[in-house]
Every structure is written in structure tokens, then in C-alpha cells.
Hints:
CATH architecture of the largest domain: 2-Layer Sandwich
Number of domains: 2
Low-confidence stretches: 1-8
CATH class of the largest domain: Alpha Beta
Order of helices and strands: HEHEHEHHEEEEHEEEEHE
Distance between the termini: 32 Å
Strand order of the largest sheet: 1-12-2-8-9
Structural class: alpha+beta
Helix content: 25-40%
Oligomer: single chain
CATH superfamily of the largest domain: CofE-like
Radius of gyration: 20 Å
Strand content: 15-25%
Number of helices: 7
Mean pLDDT: 89
Number of strands: 12
Shape: globular
Amino acid sequence: MPESRSLVLNAKRYLMPLSLTQLQNIPLIRQDDNLADILLKSLHETNIELQNDDILVIAQKIVSKSEGRMVNLATVTPSPRAVELAEKTQKDPRVVELMLQESNEVLRIRIGAIVVEHKLGFVCANAGIDHSNVMGGGNEKEEFVLLLPENPDQSARKIREQIKQKTGLNLGVMIIDSHGRAWRNGTVGICIGLSGLPALIDERGWKDLFGYTLQITVVGVADELAAAASLMMGQAAEGIPAVHVRGFPYPLGEGSLKELIRPKNQDMFR
């Protein structure tokens, strides 16, 4: 990166503080709900006036719900492979069947967890299938789980374009989920889809405080922001599935989930 470009980016980082605000009064989302309209209403009720270069960070759950990604387990017939894995991991074979359908490959198993390469390309536990905060009928015949969006980048782009049509503003939209990590305990928020903001910032060629030229530094800024927003959302009964961000310290631009996924030949944990 040219040094002049580096100086512009570094200068922007100090123009304003980074602020994250929980969006209020978002209702329980159902299939075919218009998230753009719901988010704009919530922004108004939270007394936030959108500006160019703002970012909306959205929990995967409400995107999946709006896109009809809930599955009634009573409709799932487990395959022999699912039954075998379920016995080894002590999991519901119907859920395991959905994991297999949502994955490219099973990488690791242990009691309580199946680690897969998801169809979207990233490695995660249980194919991202979730049972928490998923409302079903409350009986054995209506037990629901939630799958990840089929194309989170496309989902983010759709919400962003709808908001731009209604407001005329250019903003970023990011969809996040909670993932574990191979080398540390605890889940953190990560980006699984985005539109209108970079996934990575390549700082190779930038100068440090002492004039040293950075050689290998590429920053996962989308995941950094996802972790911050996840902290604001919580994981249990908080009911905060969206966060407004202002002061993101890099210029907005197009990014994609693909940029964040390490190629298999560079993955030292496979």
C-alpha cells in the first residue's frame, strides 16, 4: 500500500470515537418480516439518526428467522450416518442429520460437539445449528432448530440496499454469529456475512511508530467489530439482536465472507 494511502487511513482512525449502541424494541422476528423496516423503526425509537458510513451489525438469528430457516425436527428423518454420529456424540440424530446436510465435511467429533466445515466455507461446531432463543410449539411434535442463512453476504446486501433506497444513505451491514476457537476457550462474535464494509485491512507496507515497515499484518476488522457488537448483544435473554456502529476507523468498501476464510492449504489445525 502506498505510504500516502496509509497516512490517510491512519488519520481517519482518530477523527471520531468508535461508538456502539444497542437498538431497542426489536420484536420477535418471524418468517418474511422486513428487517430493513424493523431496523429503521428501531433506530428511530433509539433516537439514532442514521448517517453515511454508519454500520448496522445484526445477529444471525433474526436473519435466519426472517428467511424461514427454522426446521421442525419432527420432519427430519436421520440417515444411518447421522444415527452413528449421534451415538458417538450423544446428540439428537435428527439434529445431526441437519448438520450433515449443512456441511461439506465432518472434521472432529466428541461427546456434545461435531466440528464441521460448513457449506459456507468456515469451520464451526454443530454446523451453526441453534436451539436457543428459537420459539417452537412447546411439545415433542413441534421442536424447532435454526439453520444459518443460506447466503449471509447476500442477506446483508439486501438489507443494506433496502435501507439505502429508503434513506439515500451509504452504510455497512454485517451479520454475526458466535463461534468457538480451536486454541482458546469461550465463544466470540464473528462475521458470517457483510456488505458495504471491508472484511480485512491489509497493513503491509504501513510504517510503525519507529519507521519499521509492516510485512505480514492483515487485520480482520470485520471480526473485530463483530466481537465488540456481540458483547453488546449478549447470548441469553437480553433481546438485543442489532447494534448501531459509528466511527468505524476505516473507510467503508466492499468485503465478503470469502476473504475471512483461511484456505485449507494454510490451515494448520486441519
